Amino acid sequence: MIKKFDKKDEESGSGSNPFQHLEKSAVLQEARIFNETPINPRRCLHILTKIIYLLNQGEHFGTTEATEAFFAMTRLFQSNDQTLRRMCYLTIKEMANISEDVIIVTSSLTKDMTGKEDVYRGPAIRALCRITDTTMLQAIERYMKQAIVDKVPSVSSSALVSSLHMVKMSFDVVKRWVNEAQEAASSDNIMVQYHALGLLYHLRKNDRLAVTKMLNKFTKSGLKSPFAYCMMIRIASKLLEETEGGHDSPLFDFIESCLRNKHEMVVYEAASAIVHMPKCTARELAPAVSVLQLFCSSPKAALRYAAVRTLNKVAMKHPSAVTACNLDLENLITDSNRSIATLAITTLLKTGSESSVDRLMKQISSFVSEISDEFKVVVVQAISALCQKYPRKHSVMMNFLSNMLRDDGGFEYKRAIVDCIISIIEENPESKETGLAHLCEFIEDCEHTVLATKILHMLGKEGPRTPTPSKYIRFIFNRVVLESEAVRAAAVSALAKFGAQNDDLLPSVLVLMQRCMMDSDDEVRDRATFYMNVLQQKQKALNAAYIFNGLSVSVPGLEKSLHQYTLEPSEKPFDMKTVPLATAPITEQKTEIAPMATSKLPEKLAPARQDIYQEQLAAIPEFKGLGPLFKSSEPVQLTEAETEYVVRCIKHTFANHMIFQFDCTNTLNDQLLQRVQVQMEPSESYEVLHYVPAPSLHYSQPNSCYSLVRLPEDDPTAVSCTFSCTMKYLVRDCDPNTGEPDDDGYDDEYVLEDLEVTVADHIQKVLKPNFGAAWEEIGDEFEKEETFALATVRTLDEAVNNIISFLGMQPCERSDKVPENKNSHVLFLAGVFRGGHDVLVRARLALADGVTMQVTVRSTDENVVDVILASVG
Amino acid sequence: MDSAALEPSLYTVKAVFILDNDGNRLLSKYYDPELYPSMKEQKNFEMNVFNKTHKADNEISFLEGMTIVYKSSIDLFFYVAGSAQENELMLMAVLNCLFESLSQMLRKNVEKRTLLDNMDGVFLVVDEIIDGGVILESDPQQVIEKVNYRCVSEQAYGFVLFDYITGNMEDQGEKRQLL
After folding, report:
1. Cβ pairs A/B, distance under 8 A
2. What is the pLDDT of residue A337?
3. pTM of the prediction?
4. How far off is chain A from B48, nearest CA to CA, in Å?
C-alpha cells in the first residue's frame, strides 16, 4: 500500500514527503539508538514519529517486534525533553494493543501523573488509563480520585474523560468516583464542566430519579460551557420522551430557554431537540422554526446546512410551520454547497405550491449529478411525495426521474427511483406508457437483479394491456439472452403473460418460448416448458388460472400441507383447497413512501397471523376435524375500553363451522375469575356445539375462551346472524397486594355487546392481478345481475368503500380508487367463499341524486351468487 | 437520514483525518471501532470522501451516513466526521480548533511540507483536541499551550538550530513559568 503511494509521490516530484520511503524494518533498526547513552532527544523523537506515522498508515507490526520497540522506548523516560516524553505517551497508547506487557510503564506513568510537571500530568493519566485493566484499576483508584478534583483543568479533564472510557470496562469501580465528578461539575473551566457532566450522566443514566435531580440542579445553577448545555438539552429531551412529559414540564421550559442562549451551538441543539420531539404542536414549533430561519442566512455553511436539514425534517410532518421560511429557503437554492441547495429545494417541494414545482425541478436538475447518493434519495422521496400531492405534474417528474435513472448511482438510489416510477404508474394511468418505456430502457443496463426482476414483473402485468404491447417484447427477450438465471426466469414469466393476453403476439411468443426451453438453467427451462404447454392449449380459463393469477394460497400453509400429505400417503390426490389462503395479498403491498430508513428494510418472513391461529386452534382437542381454517377476522371489541373486564372477539371461519375466540382481560386486581366462558344466543338457526372455558383469569393476564358454532347446512344463504353474548364466570375475591384468593367464590355474569356475523366473515380476500381473465375463466354459468339504489350515499368514493368493507372482498385492478370528477365507476372485487368457491363481483356505479349500483356476481357455485346478492339487497 | 434521537453522550467525533491533495492519508484517527474496522475500508472511505469534496470548498457534507465537516489549505484537506444526528456546529468547533491550532503551531504555513516536517507536533495537537472520540479541548490557545511545541520550518532554520543548541536552558525557563 505504502509503496504504491510512494511511486506517485516520486512522480509528482517536489511536494516530497520525508516519510515516503519509510521501511518498517529500517525504522525498527534505527530504534536501537534508544538504548544509547546519553539519549539524543532529537533523533529519538524523529524515530518515534516515524513509528507512529507507520502505525497510522496501517503498517502491521508483529507482536515480537512491537514489544521490542516498546521496551526500548521505555528507556526514553530518562530524558527530560518535553516533546519526547509526550511522544512516548502517544506511542504507549498506539501500541497498547499490539505490544505485550505494556503495563511495565505503569510506575513511570504514575510518577508523571502525580509529579510536579503539570504538562505531563494530563497526558500521563490518559496513557495510564489506556493500559490499565480491571485488576490494576484498584491500584490507581486513589490517584484517579485526586486527579478528578485537581485544580489544573487539563488534569481534571483528562481524568474525567479517561474515567468515562473505563466505565465500559469496570462500571462498579468508576461508580465510586461519583462524588469527585460531582465536585468537578461545578468547576469554572468549561471543558471540565462538560466532561464532568458527561461522566455523571453515564454513571447515573439508569436511575431516572438521579438524572432528574442532576438536571434540576444544573438548570437552576446555570452552566458555563456551551458543550455542557448541548449535553443537558439531549438529556432533558430524552427524559421528556421517556416520561412522556407534557410540554408544560420544566424540562421543556429549559430547552425552550436555551433558544435564547448566546452560543449558536446551543440554540441549534435546542431547536433541533424541539423539532425532533414526538407530538409537538405547531405553536411549540414556532420559536424553534424562527431561530432556524435566522440561521438560514448565516455566512457559515455548516450553520445553514444544519438549519435547512432540520427544517426539512419539520416539513415532513408540519409543512405549514415551515412556509414562513419559504423566502429564506428560496435564497438557498442557489447555494454553492449543493447539499444545502438540495435540502432547500426538497423542503420547498414539500411546502410550496403546485406552480413552483416546475421551476424547482429545473433548478435541481442543473446540479443533481454533483450531489451524493444520500441526497439523491432525499430528492427522489420528495418527488414521490409530490406526485401523490400533485398527480398532474407526473410528466415533469417522469422526465426528471428517467434522467436520474440514467446517471450513476448505488442500489439504494436506483431502488428509490424504480419504486417511485412504479408508484406513479400505478397511481396514474396516463403516465403508464412513458413510465414503462423508461423502465425498459433501464433494465437494458441494470446490474441489480432485484430491480430487474421487479421491473420484468411490472412489464408482464402492465405491458400486455397497453396499445402496442409488441414493443416491450424485444426488451424482455433481450433479458433472456443476456442476464443471470433469476432475471431470465422472470423474463420468461413476463413473456408468457404477453402471449396469453394478445392473440396476435402468441405465435411469436411461442417461438421465443421454444428458444427459452433450451436454457441452461433448470428453473428457466421449467417455466418455459410449463408456459409453452399452457399457451398451446389456447384456453382462456387455463391462461387465467396459471399465467395471470397465480396461486393465492399462503406459502407456509402450502408447505405444511404438502409435508403432512407426504407423511400420510393416501390414494387421494392432494387437494389444493385444503390449503389455507394467503391473508395479505402479496403483490398489493404498497411501496413505503414515508421516510425510508437509510438502508435496512428487513424482509420479514414471520408466519402470517392466520397461520398462528391455525396452530393455536389445532391444539384444542374439541376443535379436531373441522378442516383447515378458512378465515380469521380482525378482533371486535365487545366491551368499552375502560371497563372491569375487557373482551374482544376474533371470528374464525371453517368450511361448516365457526369458532369464536374471546380474548378476555381482567382489570380488577382484587378478583380472580375462574371457569370463564361466553354464552351465546344466536338469532338464526346457528347451533352452538361447544364451549371451551378459560380455566382462570388473573389480574391483567389475558386468557382466551372459545365457542364452537355449527353453520346451518340446510339453508346456505343464512350467512348473517346476531349473537347476544354473556360472560359467565366464578369470582373469587383476592388480596390486591399478594394476589392470594379467598377459598370460596360466587358465580356472576357480565353482559357483553352483541356480536354480528356478516357475509364478510365467509369470504376471504383474494387478489386477481388480471381481473378480466379471471372473469372469463369463471364464465357466466351462475351469473346474476341486479340493480340497487343507494340513497344514503352521496359520493362514489363513499359507495366504493362501503361495498368493500361490507363484502370483505379484495378490490382488483386498483378499482378501489375513484378518479376525480367522474360520475361513473366500475369496481371489481374478488374473493373466495367458504368452502373454496371463487366469487367475483363487478359493480357499476353511477352518480346522480344518490348512487345507483348495478351488481353482477359470478361464481363457481350458484348458492354463493345468491348469498351475495341477497346480502347486498 | 433517520430521525432517531441521539443518545446523550460525550462521544461526538467518529473520525478525524488529514489528506494531501491526492487524497493520500497523512493522519487518520477512527474513534468508533465499529466504523470501518479494517484499514482497507478506512482508506476506501477516505478516498470516497476526498473525491466528493476536494473540488468545491463547501465546508460540510453528508456521506456514507455521516456528517462530515472539512476545510482545505493549500495542499491539505482536514476532515472531521460525526454521526448523522450529531450537532454540526460541535463538529465544526472541533475542525476549527484543529485548524487554528495547527495554523498557530506551523506559523500559518499550513501546507503539506511543513506539516510533515512537524508531524510529531501534529500528532500531539490531535491528541490534545480529541481523546477517544470525546472533545478534550476546543480552544486553540489552550491546545498550543498544552502541546508547547516548537515548530521546525525551513525559513526559521537558524532559529531552530539555536533553539536546539540552547534547548535545555529554555526548557527549564518555561517550566518555571508554568509552575
Report:
1. 183
2. 83
3. 0.66
4. 10
